[in-house]
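Structure first, sequence second, as always.
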């Protein structure tokens, strides 16, 4: 697996997917299907609910790959009726997706570090903490089929030797 990861990094691929299940599998790029296919439309609910007009292109690309992934084409998919968990890794974070036997996303847990912050999040942070600097952030998304996606930003703020943490949703509301 180390050789495969090294090869993909050298080839300039920003995203590497791998499955985590009791029978650990790799998410081969051949399992990604075109956006016009049936599988993609089955996961349009996921894309609609997690899409944030502020998301950067690299997040959008990874989320699209998650929506297009075809678990039934995985070498470790054995026709099971249990869920199938796949982890997609990017340079700034990861998405762990749980699919049913038909390739429909049941839930995802997403976490990304140091992303571009939405204007409402920056605005709230600077209004609550004037003269402070945002020294880092973590963007988290929890998606569950048939429910709204939960999107949160954890901001690390500093002012001299002082430090604090601020939790906001994607609209800048304090949590």
């Amino acid at each position: 697996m180390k050789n495969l990861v090294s090869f993909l990094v050298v080839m300039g691929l920003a995203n590497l997917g791998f499955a985590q299940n009791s029978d650990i599998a790799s998410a081969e790029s051949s399992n990604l299907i075109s956006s016009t296919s049936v599988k993609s439309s089955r996961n349009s609910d996921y894309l609609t609910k997690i899409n944030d007009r502020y998301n950067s292109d690299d997040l959008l690309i990874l989320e699209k790959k998650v929506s297009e992934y075809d678990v039934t084409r995985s070498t470790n998919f054995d026709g099971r009726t249990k869920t199938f968990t796949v982890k997609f890794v990017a340079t700034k974070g990861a998405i762990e997706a749980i699919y049913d036997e038909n390739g429909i996303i049941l839930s995802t847990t997403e976490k990304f570090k140091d992303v571009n912050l939405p204007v409402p999040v920056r605005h709230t942070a600077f209004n609550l903490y004037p003269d402070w600097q945002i020294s880092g952030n973590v963007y988290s998304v929890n998606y569950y089929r048939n429910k709204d996606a939960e999107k949160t930003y954890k901001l690390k703020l500093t002012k001299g030797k002082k430090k604090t943490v601020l939790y906001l949703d994607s609209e800048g509301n304090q949590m």
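Margin note: Residues 2-169 form one domain.
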